[in-house]
Structure formats: C-alpha cells, structure tokens
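Summary of Year 1 activities. Much of the first year was spent building the evaluation harness for sequence design. The harness presents a backbone, in tokenized form, and records the residue chosen at every position. We chose the following record to illustrate the format because it has been used consistently in internal testing since the harness was completed.
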C-alpha cells in the first residue's frame, strides 16, 4: 500500500471546528486496555468532539488503496450547489473551486496542510494569542510565513486577502473547512487513534490497512492523538 502523502503533521491544536460531520473511526491505541484487538469498537461519530482537548498533540497521515485507481482532481465528485451560511465555508469553497478549475487541487491541499502546521507552531501561536500584540503586527507575522513558505499561489492570495481584511481569526476555520470539503469529495475516511505515547509509523499504517479492509474506502487518513492520561488510567 503506497501512501497518499509522506508529510506527517504534529502539533498542539486548538479546537478544530467543522460545519458538517465526516465519517470517522475512533479507537484507542493497543497500548491501553480499552482496545479490543479486532477493532470491533470502531464507531462512526462527529470528529469535532475529539478535539475538545487543545493540549493534545496529534499526527496525521493519509493512505490510499493499492487496489483502486489513484484519485486525481478531475475524479472528485462535483459538489451540489449550496449556499454557504458561514464565511469560512465560503472562503474554503472558493479556494476549492479555484484549485479545481486550475487543476492544482492536490498541490493546494498539500500546502493547506503544510501551512496549517506552521500556523499552529509554538512561535506563531504565542504571537497570535498574545493580547498585547495588535492585529496589524499579527497579520504581518502571518504574511511573512506565507511569503517565506512559497505556498501555492491560490492559497497565498487567499491568506494575504484575509490578512488585509483583518480576518486573521478565521484563518484556522477556513483551513479546516477546506480539509473537510476535500475529504468529503475524495471519499477519505478519518481514523482517530488515541494513545498514551507516540506510535510508530508502521503501527499507524497497519491500523489504516485494517480500517481500509473493513470499510472499503479508497483513502484513509490517520490522526494520532497523544493523551498521557491514558497511561495512568491503565494502572
């Protein structure tokens, strides 16, 4: 099984809001006694409930099936016309539409994940969360990250426009909404794995393969949440 992306994100993220549920599988790591080895505790639920602990770092990795054709931007299902009641959804949908029309959706999605990791870095979060730093200074800091990161131009234009319009507080929501739409259109299943310590990549890959065989999904995205309290509860 080849991987959809070799990038792995690891960060301490604040709550990740979503506007629509994605089908997810959530289970604990085999390191704790709460797991059954045959994974029949897998359950479908709303993913936003798993991010109520902003201090929990997680890693994310995507996998795709070797038995199904590769997913290309042109193969994504066309979304039905919708009215976006939230501004973040409108920004995300506009970026998605521009990326698809330019046939650069995969590149934009990759850079959205890359920028999200930088956006949640300890240095940048300290500045953005500092009440004594004015919005203009915060915007300049983010703009420098965008310029130095050499991101795909459609994403860079959107981010700079949001900074100029003082929409910094909405950036994270837009990034998450873009990922939600992308996962929905590409048929990606989200697997949430909780463990007391960081798991090896081959362990996560094995979990992804197991879920893929059970669900028949073309793509699996693993999000690894590290919760040190699980080790104490195992005693």
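For this record, the design step produced the sequence shown next.
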């Amino acid at each position: 099984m080849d991987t959809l992306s070799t990038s792995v994100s690891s960060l301490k993220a604040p709550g990740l809001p979503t506007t629509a549920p994605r089908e997810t599988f959530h289970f604990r790591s085999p390191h704790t006694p709460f797991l059954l080895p045959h994974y029949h505790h897998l359950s479908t639920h709303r993913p936003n409930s798993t991010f109520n602990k902003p201090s929990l770092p997680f890693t994310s990795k995507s996998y795709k099936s070797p038995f199904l054709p590769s997913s290309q931007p042109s193969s994504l299902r066309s979304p039905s016309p919708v009215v976006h009641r939230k501004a973040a959804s409108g920004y995300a949908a506009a970026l998605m539409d521009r990326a698809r029309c330019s046939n650069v959706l995969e590149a934009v999605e990759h850079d959205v994940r890359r920028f999200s990791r930088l956006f949640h870095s300890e240095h940048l979060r300290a500045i953005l969360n500092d009440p004594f730093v004015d919005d203009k200074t915060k915007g300049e800091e983010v703009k420098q990250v965008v310029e130095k990161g050499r991101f795909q131009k459609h994403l860079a234009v959107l981010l700079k426009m949001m900074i100029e319009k003082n929409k910094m507080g909405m950036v994270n929501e837009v990034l998450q909404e873009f990922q939600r739409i992308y996962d929905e259109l590409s048929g990606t299943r989200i697997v949430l794995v909780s463990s007391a310590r960081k798991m090896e990549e081959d362990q996560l890959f094995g979990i992804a393969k197991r879920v893929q065989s059970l669900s028949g999904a073309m793509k699996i995205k693993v999000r690894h949440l590290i919760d040190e309290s699980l080790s104490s509860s195992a005693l």
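The helical segments are 87-101, 105-119, 122-128, 135-149, 153-164, 171-186, 201-215, 229-233. Quantitative recovery figures across the full test set are reported in Table 2.
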